[in-house]
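Handoff note, outgoing to incoming analyst
You'll be picking up this chain. Sequence as last confirmed:
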Amino acid sequence: MWPGQQPPGGEQNPQDAHQNPYQQPGYQQSGYQQAGYQPNPYQQPAAPQYAPPMPPGGNGKKTTVIAIVAATAVVVAAVITGVVVLGKNDEGGSTKAGDKETSSPPSDTPEEPSAPAENPRGGSVEGAEPTIPGWKVVTNPKYATRFDVPPEWEVKSPGQSISFTDDKDKPLISVSAPAYFKSGWCGTNAVLGAAGTRGANGASTTGPEAENVAGAWVFAGYDQEETGTFKISKATPFTSRSGLKGSVSVATVTGVKKKTKCDTDGKSIAFAFKNANGDFAVWSLFTSKGVKDELPDATIKQILGTVRLAD
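Most recent structure output, in case you need it:
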């Protein structure tokens, strides 16, 4: 429900990589919609409907939440009934928020030697230049990818990740080397949105992986109680400005039951592709929908277009 910090490389798959939980036999035709990718990916034509997904079951990968370097508490103001899982810091303290007791909050610590140092303008001291003038570069050395974000975004270290968990603290979806949009948007530790890259071990094609990730963000981050209407677009081919080819899918959840001022509808987009090593990876972005400072769809499309392989 709340996103927390995960160890480097600790992103979890919300389900088996060969399955799309939103397109499994046995789901009734209500709740979910799918449609093709359009010039504005969040304005979809009507399409067949599918039932809301169940929370990921035993098929999902399990990764223990352990210490993370440079772990800073970050949550998305989407669902406040859950728990922020921050793992343990280097001193052995732990932090949980929500209905759990909070102790010794984590602090920024030096990044591991293998990770490049951060540049005040984003990216790293490697000298990576943004493809959009004035924007910041986000580099993920583990998956050998980069993308650009507007100057007001916060670029975090490659060793940091952000995730959503269920009410039992089980991680549902995450990305590493993230960038945050509007930290403190609804509370000190809240962010309005985030973007990053994750692996896709076991994937055989990009389409289902893009759909899985896009759907997982809006479900896990904004409406685990399934009070709203979910829509997931059928993945379609996409080529970024750099020539990187893959599949893209978008998802939204609207009509979410608002229990607090921080509860919102949500939207996400996922771009699945193969990196230079031939491994599948997925870039994704999630953010609140229908709020005053909503991230414009045009900006999301610009960020998507900058996704590229690292040199």
